Amino acid sequence: MHCEKVYLVINPRAGQDMTKMTDVFTLFAAAGWDVDNALVEYGGHAGELATKAAKRDYDLIIGHGGDGTTNELVNAVMQSKKQTSVVGVLAGGTANQWPHEISMPLDPIKAALALINSDVRKVDVGRITVQSIVFPGASQEQQVAQEEEEEKAKKARKKDKIEYYFLLTAGLGIDASVISHTSKSLKERIGSLAFDVAAAKELPAQHPFHVEICEVDAEHEEAQAKTLWTGEALQIVLGNTRLYGDAIDLTPNAYIDDGLLDICIITANSPFTKLQQMASLVLRHKPDSDTTTYVQGSHFTLTLPATIGLQLDGSAMELEDCLTDEESAALKQAKDAANVMVTYRFDVFKQALPVAIPRTYDNTLFAATHDTDNEQPSIVSSLHDGAGQAATQEQIDALLKGGKQVTVSGVAPHPEKNSTYILAGTTRKESTGDIKPVAVRVTTDTQLYTRKGERVALGAVAALQDGALILVEGKTSKRGVMQASSIIV
Fold first, then answer.
1. Which neighbouring-strand residues pair with 304?
2. What are phi and psi of 327, to 5 degrees?
3. Which end of the chain, N or C, is less surrounded by CB atoms within 10 Å?
4. CA distance 131 to 151
5. Strand pairing of 299-305 and 248-249?
6. Nearest to residue 483, comparing CAs of 410, 404, 415, 428?
7. Residue 363: how many CB atoms within 10 A of its CB?
8. Residue-range domains of the chain with CATH
9. Whole-structure pTM value
10. Tens digit of each residue's pLDDT (9 = 90 or more) over 294-325
């Protein structure tokens, strides 16, 4: 992945461990990345920071936080004119669904190495808008006036661009209600258990709702919509990816590059099955297949009561955020809010967003095959394959005496530079005994030896295990990056 300018958005409220951020910056410096960063200070701030970064043409915008932080970055890049900035992630939230989906390590050091050794892939993004909102009990004259207002509202929405994007899932029903009533402070203290606490309070009030799902012809908007499904549902999940609640594959056939959303409709045909299905969602078990229906679509509408909650990528969404000022005022004044019907419009933008995907990922979410232009440097089967002249005992003794002892934390090849590795580790400062992070850049100019003086090939670096002790000789920059001239493995 070609990368020079990087912007790191750090959300300290997501609950992640901030102690390793210095190590992360050191690794990025070793990769040759020029990194700027900013802390998220309030709700929506991550999106504002990412919007500025996208306008300034940063190559890579990384979110260090949860799926909500990632969602804000996705919206910022999708709403930018160029849509060229790549979105990356360093896990730090409660669920971390996106890192799990793409096999991105949760440990910041491992994740930083995985980002360095990533490819840019284009993925689908879903978009939601409000197509219409209908208030009950209107007379014929009022109905005509309402239709005129709806037409004005449509034009206003196109002008004001009241739209939101999502990368993972959208949900309508039980999950949105639970998420919206989950205490943020409690989530910071006990993590995902906070959702269970909220669920225990909210489940008794949940009930099936009527929904109609219609497929829309995006090329001929005036064409008659085709009904895909209609009936009573407990929960609707629109999956662009497969995991739900970071635990179950609720949409197991979803691909992130096929231009489709997989829609899972969870129903209940009796009070018993209602409780059963609700319990399954809370306990993160796959619902009963007999009361679960699947449909697919690229452009479609969902019509349902306006009181039903909505979540995007695990964050609660307010209906009013999608409405014009006139619609929002009318909704607040509605006497029978339970009978107000809203029609959401969902569209998929196929392979519209560039994201960083680790080269070690098995491509489960991708329907299309992927060929990389820069193959990873091969790891030699023999450590002595291609070995050069052995070192004298005096040279080895000098290295043992003057070399810096490094404890290995991880290794990754640099995909842009052949036969180059970035090694993460720590070293102890002799004067104070403090542990300091260090990033070692290993190239073909680096000489590798065993403690007996035998010369070994560059591939020996890739074979190093976490916790291994090595001795490194070379110049260290102020940012802790060490250009290795010699290493004893």
1. 342
2. -65, -40
3. C
4. 10
5. unpaired
6. 404
7. 13
8. 5-118 (3.40.50.10330), 126-352 (2.60.200.40), 393-488 (2.40.50.730)
9. 0.86
10. 999 999 999 999 999 999 998 999 999 899 88
